[in-house]
User: What shape does this take?
Amino acid sequence: MIIKELEASFGKLSHHQLSLKKGLNIIYAPNESGKSTWCAFIRAMLYGIDTSQRDKTGFLSDKTRYRPWSGAAMEGTMLVNTRGRDISIQRTAQGSAPMRRLKAVYPDNGEMVADASGEALTGATEEIFSRTAFIGQTGIKVSQSADLERKITSIISTGSEDTSYSQIDARLRSWQRKLRFNKTGELPALEQELALAEKKISTLDMANDRIAEMKNELLRLEAKEQQLKTDLETHKKLEIRAAKRRVLDARRAAENSKRKAEELRRSVSIDEHLISREELTRLRGEIASLEMLKILASDSYATLEKARDENYNAKLLLSQCVIKDKDPGYVTEQAKKAEEYERVIKDKSSRKAPKILKTALAALAAVGGIGAVAAFFTFESKLFALIGLGICIAASAALLFMPKADRNVRAARDAILSEFNMLTVAELSQAARDYAGLTMQVDGTEISVTAADAAFKAAIDKADQAAAELMAAAKKLFPHITAVNELPSILTKTEETLSQLTKAEFNSTANSNIYNMLLESYEGNPDEEDEDFLTTPLRDPEETQKMLDKTIASAKDLRQRYNLAQGTIRAMGDPAIINGEIQETTSRIAQLKARYEALDLAIQTLKDADSELQTRFSPVISRIAGEYMNRLTYGRYEKLLFDKSFDAMAKTSEDSVSRNVLSLSQGTADQLYLSLRLAMCELMLAGDEPCPIILDDALVSFDDERMASALELLLELAEKRQIILFSCHSREADFLKGHEKVNIIRTKRK
Assistant: This one.
């Protein structure tokens, strides 16, 4: 069971609300802010208010203590979840009794809940709940009770909660006191009767009056005997009629349960085919597959959007590039040509002769030429003329073949730079590389967009195809379905109907078997009309039979004593008659003494049996509580022992003997009894949906280390049951702040 919502007009709470969740809930509220009031309100919503309590000196009853301060009526609502369904519970006043009227409905359909009492929801009586799962700061210690004793007995022995050692022991002692209690009881009465019988010898003169009384009494007993026999005959007739009614009721129950099963079967059948759970499971699997395909389509669309964004960004960068609308290959080729031209120009420039050398060669050629002409026309010898001509020719040739920069190469390079509006070859090369890279990036993103678009369309097609196939499969079982999103609720409703059908068919078979069994044991025709009217006797058959036997025995006894009295009168005090009476009384006394001793033996045997039960109970509860105590104290306390009254002994790993709980510190004692409470919850309040554990400042005496270990244990237990912890300190909330499995509520003083 999970408590989800609370709204209270209770004590200082004036229509205050509290929202709780599954698992561990920590409600931090300072003192005087209503923590204990909330706890009392939860218990009142489950079990109501005990209006039999009366105010006394130093004590206020709950109806007085929690009367709303606002003057409004004491009432409240609680939303719980159990067996997978929400239940809205409302408690209001009934007359002058606060919170006596209980109303519970299922919010999803408004249907009334058959039983929403605290015992039905938690699986425990209020007494057991208060001694196990309801843990307060001042009430953490566990005390024994008859309910708790019966619960323990049922767990460790018979499985029945109808027996209690203390109650049976009290009953046996009551019977024993009826036989003899000081000077009262049946035995003292018989002993007194014996004394009177012995005195009878001296009172024979009173026998004549007694004879007349005995005769009248005998007549009365005979009339009573006849009436009792008539009553027994009437009981037999009434029993026959009751048997007939049982047969007819069983037949009606069998017919009704069969009709209900048939109606449920028709409601989950298509063309006389009963929808199976396997078919429903298959449809649920197809729904899950469709959801996965939708998720894949959504992921594909996200991928497509990302590819489009990348393509857009690449195109934007390309548009901002210096070079535009050119073929990347052409741009790269021209850049390479420009680089080649640049290398050629640099290479020829490195081989170019200095300017002074060229001037010297030109002068030498001129001098050689002039000297050759002058020697040819001046001197008779032609040798000087030839030498001068040779010098002129050599200098001219050297000057002619000296390296020069090619003007055509420069022009080609400059034409390329001008085409792309670049100043240098290096700038052109970098721009060409950037342009080629951006162009490739644009092409790549366009390919990605195309691929992502194809993947998205394929995912959409698969999802649509799966939805169509699911719709076709669903219509075979549910012809009236119009949309796939209707299918989950239809499947849930159909599964619930199938569960109801299983239960209805079981009930039909059981009721039919009961009817056939009763019909076979009934003699006659149950459809025949009853002829005469019968009045039910005042006593039941067993009591009537006992009364008849007693009356017959009394009449017989009275006849004997009557005859004896007559004989006594005739014999004028015959001692044999009186001794016969004494002997009869003595025999009765012996019988009662034997019965008294048998009761004494039964009391002792019961005590031994109870001791045996306690011997079996203590290890079970001690083991579980000891494990919790070991965790709460980080292994310091390794063993706990509890007796019948839940008085505890604890032993650390360093102690040689166990110590009484009275010798422990308050914090350690509270850890011990918290361990016991949690162990009792595990042992007595288990199940598929265990009831919540409510703690009201139960950790207030714990130091920070003990508090941390307790919270770690409560977190683990909260995996299986709801835990609601109220605290006046913020340290619990601070310790688990940000924990995803903890619901923390911080409130202010009201």
